[in-house]
Design a protein that fits this description.
- With about 90 residues, the protein is an alpha+beta fold.
- It has one domain.
- Helices cover about 10% and strands about 25% of the residues.
Length: about 90
Amino acid sequence: MQYRSKPKIVEAEQFNENTYLHSEFLSELIVDKATFIDIYSTKCAADGRYHINADNGFVEIHNGLYIVRKISGEIVVKQAKYFESEYELVT
């Protein structure tokens, strides 16, 4: 037998370290290591400054990654090419 996955709507945003604080969704999930460790205050996303506590553990966040909250509440991080192949914008 063959199956088609059911349509699903998720909440998601693409991470950008210059704008994430303006996003209510991202700002509540992203942890800035500079808050706890002074050495990170001069670092950027490419240096591992940001992370998120996703359902599969702590994940370093870099510019361009999508943070997704599934219907179940599960938080996952996806590379842009995978996210864009699985989801489309709901208008």
